C-alpha cells in the first residue's frame, strides 16, 4: 500500500468480533462501551466505511477493531484483561510512546529530547496509529468500491460485450457468405455467357471453313477440268482443229482465270475478343494481386548502363529524373545505353511466370511506362529506339494531360476518371496478358493481349520531373 505502514507495529485484525459478541453475551456491554471510547479517540466516527464494511457483501468489520490505540483481538490484553505488553526503547529503556516521522520508527520521549531524534518531526504514537488506521479505512473502502466496480463490469459489461460480439460475428459471417455467393453467381453467369460466346464464334469459324472448303474444292475441280480440256486440245488436235478451237480455248481460259487466288482472311480466325470480359479480367487481376497468395511487387531497379544522358539515376537505382540541358553530361559509350531518347530499362528480364511492379509518377507531365524486348534498338533518334513506336515495345503514355496506350506507332486513348499518382503493371506470361492499373484504387487502365516471343524488360521514359519504382 505505502511505505508509511511498513514499520508500524500493527496487530492482526480479527474479522470475527461480531461472532464473539454473539457467543459471549457477558462481554457485550463492556465491549460496546470500550468500542465507543475507542471510536471517539481514533477519529473514524462517521466514516463511510463504518456502514459500508459492516453491511458489505464481502467483509464484516466491527467497530471494536479500533479500541484504545490497538486492534481488538490482537493481543492477550484484548481477551484476558491482562495489561498490554509495553515495548521499551533499546537505547533509553523507556516506553515507545512516540513516532519519529523522519526516521519512520517508534521512539521514546528521551529519543526526542536527548537522543538521535532531536529536531526531527515527532508525534504521539497513538496519533500516528490513528492516522494509519484512518488511511487503512480509506484504502479498504476504495478496495471495496473497486471490487463492486469489477463485479459490475463482469456481470454487465462483459456479458453485454459477449452477446454483442456473438451478434457481430454472426452478421460478419452472413456478409461473407452473401458476398461470396454474389461473386459466385456473377462468375457462373459470366462463365456461361463467355462459353456460349466462344461456342458461337467457333461455330461461325467452322461454318466459314466449310464454305471456304466447298468453294475452293469446286474451284479446284473447275481449274482441273479446264486444264484437262486444254491439254487434250493441245495434244489431240490437228492444226486445223486447233485453229478452229479458239472459242473453246477462250472459254476454258476464262474459267481458269475466274477461279482466283486463295488467301487467308480474318473471317477464318477465331475472334479472341469473344472471351474478353471486364468482370473476369477484374476478378482475375484481383485474385492475383489481392488474394491470399497475391503477387508481391518485384524488387526492381533501373540498369545504370541503359540510362539516357537526358536522365539522372538515383543512388538506389529506383528514381529517374529528367535533366535540364545545362546539367546534362556525355557519359562514356555503352552499347546498352539509349543515347537520344529519355529512356531506361530494368535489369531483370522476364521470360515466364507472373510479375507485378509499380512506379510513382507523381505530377510528371510526360512519361511512358511499360515493357520492351531486350533486343530493342538503343541508338539513334528513329522510331526503333522510341518507346511505343515500334513492334518491340508496349507502353502507357502520359503527355499534355492525356493517357494513351502505344505500340508499333499506334496510339489508343485511355480514359481515366482521376489522374493516378502511381501506375502499376501486371504481366502474366502464360496468359499472354499485360495489364496497366492504378494501385491506389485497383482500377484497370488498359489491358494488352500479347504472345511475347522474346525476353521483356520493364521500361520507362521521362521527359518531365521524376518517376520512381515503388515496392
UniProtKB/TrEMBL annotation:
GO terms for cellular component: cytoplasm. The keyword Cell inner membrane does not apply. This is B-box and SPRY domain containing. Residues 14-55 are annotated as: Disordered. InterPro entries: B30.2/SPRY, B30.2/SPRY_sf, Butyrophylin_SPRY, ConA-like_dom_sf, E3_ubiq-ligase_TRIM/RNF, PRY, SPRY_dom, Znf_B-box. It comes from Astyanax mexicanus (Blind cave fish). PROSITE patterns: B302_SPRY (PS50188). Residues 173-204 form a coiled coil. Residues 37-53 have a biased composition (Polar residues). SMART domains: PRY, SPRY. It holds the Pfam family SPRY. GO terms for molecular function: zinc ion binding. Keywords: Coiled coil, Metal-binding, Zinc, Zinc-finger. Residues 280-471 form the B30.2/SPRY domain.
